[in-house]
Amino acid sequence: MNLGSPDSTAVKDVRKYLNEFLMDGRVIDIPYLLRLLLVKGIIVPFRAPKSAEAYKTIWWKEGSPLIEYTKQLRKALQQQIEEPVTIAMRYGSPSSKASYDELLKKVDGLEEVILFPLYPHYAMSSYETAVEHMKETHAAGNYSFKLTTIKPYYNHPDYINAMVENMRPSLQQEYDHLLFSYHGVPARHIKKSDITGTHCLQINNCCQVASPAHNFCYRHQCFETTRLITSRLNIPQDKFSISFQSRLGKGWLEPFTDIRLEQMPAEGIKKLLIICPAFVSDCLETLEEIAERGKETFIHAGGQSYTMIPCLNIHPAWVAAMSGWIKDYSAGNTEMILS
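Below the sequence we write its predicted structure tokens.
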């Protein structure tokens, strides 16, 4: 399961997609009537035309890059496992119901569906909403099969290995700095996901102090992914940093990627590598926001070279990790299964 995409770059299709996406109470977590007024009265009318133009700059002749990469991943995974594989999107098409029904047609007496969210980190606006949406559709359809979910894999050795192998070719070039740009979320989301109610963003160095809250803390998990990757690659502390992109307002996690891209050249960082580990598949936020607009910002500020490292997409090490987890579960290993 991936995020989803508009059906086309037409403003009407982008508007439909944005309405579904932004009306999700786990994305904009304010009372329904206020959210309705904000999304349909302010954000979408203003944003849909701009987003449509942005999509046009990255759209493939086959369609949305995110959708096409997910289709390619499905095909690559299907070549390595026996169980039938289909895809679902949290917003747009194919829907969760359509995907469940497709599997029912493929498998007589279907007993279990394994949900594989293409979100490495736990966040209420990504992983959580995807999983809960699939659960709700499952319950509403009164399906007889069991629904099992792959848990967040931000620190799993196989995911880290796939990231490392995906990054190695780009790291062969000369660079001054490596920026890990994660999708931003409001700080209040971090606090809402804190099962202890007293840890996240409430004590010093909260992401480094052990706590059960880390199982649901997006910020901690982003830091941990970065730590594990840079440790494997032996990248010095002063050679990398973390930022957060795609903010929609105040109170979001900092530092902001777009601001850092403006600042870095003045700090002596002229040759930059940037990667977006929160995204498994390249999409609008990586191809347009980072690869296009981000580069323009950095170069305009005095940077000399700028390289965005692609997402995992269909990297062989990533496909091998996914297939390995499914095969392990089929053999009775429940390590990757959400309890």
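The longest helix spans residues 32-58.
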